[in-house]
Amino acid sequence: MSSSPSSVSRIFPASVFIVLSLSCFFFMDMISLIINFPSPTASGRIEWDNGTFPILDNFHWLRPLDPIIREITPGFAPSSFGYDDVSRWQMMNFIISEPGVFYAIWGFESLRRGVRGGPASYPGIFGFIAQFGGGGVIIPIYYFSYLAFTRPIRSRPLPERRIDIGGATIWSTLLILFHVIPVVGIMFDTSLEARHWWTWFWQLYTVRITLSWYIVQFVGGFIKLPTVHSTMSYRTKTALVLAPFIAIAVGLWTYTVLYCPYTLSAVFYPHPLTEDTWVLRMRRILQFDQLFVWGSSVLWVAMDMRRNRMSSGIEIILAGIMLAGVAGTGASFGLVWLWREWKLAGDDEKSVLKDE
Q: Which residues cross the membrane (predicted)?
């Protein structure tokens, strides 16, 4: 069956995210890392100049997940254990703030009646794959799927454009429990043993959030959960459910700007390697990861606002870049998404866009 003109008109521009995904895979060059450097798991220990640390063999007792996660966890050690201080400053911002903001937004999007049944309804699947395939590689695929297979939201009546605020509150709470607390443990717990344990625990945060979400929904079907009625506007409510993650991102960025002993370029920009080592390769991979996660996220907001005829998209990209410098990349994405949300769901009921 041939695609409708409307579907083709969505798929073609959305294909830029496929290009971004492939570009990130190319620049991260993980294949070369695997070929040229033996995995730390071969010796069973994470090793650096001043010490070694045993890698856990099992955590979830789930095969084949534990062997895969065991290969991934050493990649967090240079920043978590602190033997690559530049990477520690970068990851302190990246791992804590970025997933908190984008996974909150993915969850909120799944709670919008106008997108139910489409790819945006399954943030847990995309999030799970991103944990193993790399955020900068997989997250653009989510945005491609969203733009290609979801009709413009303004083609829906106003009630279908809005997210379920009660559900968003539950989602945010679960995200704090299963993402924010573990990543704070990864970076700041008092012992290396605890940091390594948190690294293992965090790997399946998207699965834990998804399972907990369905458990809450199941329990809510039998037990009437308390609801809070508020006279606050929809715009205020959406700002409040995302505010904790934006605040964390702004706080970490501000601390970095004030106290980081390195230039922001050295911390966040993936410079060419001056020495080809496993640690420097990992640093560069994570820097590219952050750039593509943030860049694709802001571009998605810009393109979605353009197709909903709320903006040319250019001002969103410019605002995203400016806000990244002022408040950090995580906050930048959160703030431009709120801008989109307020314009998208704040329209008059009669303002409905025809999906051409």
A: 12-35, 120-144, 165-188, 200-219, 240-264, 284-302, 314-339
Q: What span, in angstroms and rounded, lies between the C-alpha atoms of 54 and 79? A: 17
Question: Is the residue at 352 inside a domain?
Answer: no
Per-residue pLDDT of the chain (356 residues; tens, 9 = 90+): 444 546 777 888 999 999 999 999 999 999 998 898 888 888 899 999 888 999 998 898 888 889 999 999 999 999 999 999 999 999 999 999 999 999 999 999 999 987 877 888 899 999 999 999 999 999 999 999 999 998 888 888 888 889 999 999 999 999 999 999 999 999 999 999 999 999 999 999 999 999 999 999 888 777 776 666 677 888 999 999 999 999 999 999 999 999 999 999 999 999 998 888 999 999 999 999 999 999 999 999 999 999 988 888 899 999 999 999 999 999 999 999 999 999 988 655 445 555 44
d(CA 161, CA 345): 6
Indicate the pTM of the whole model.
Answer: 0.91
DSSP string, 176-192: IIIIIHHHHHHHH-SSH
Domain count, the chain: 1
Q: Which domain covers residue 163, as residue numbers?
A: 5-345
Q: Give the separation between CA 251 and CA 213, rounded to whole angstroms.
A: 28
Instruction: Tell me if 355 is assigned to some domain.
Output: no
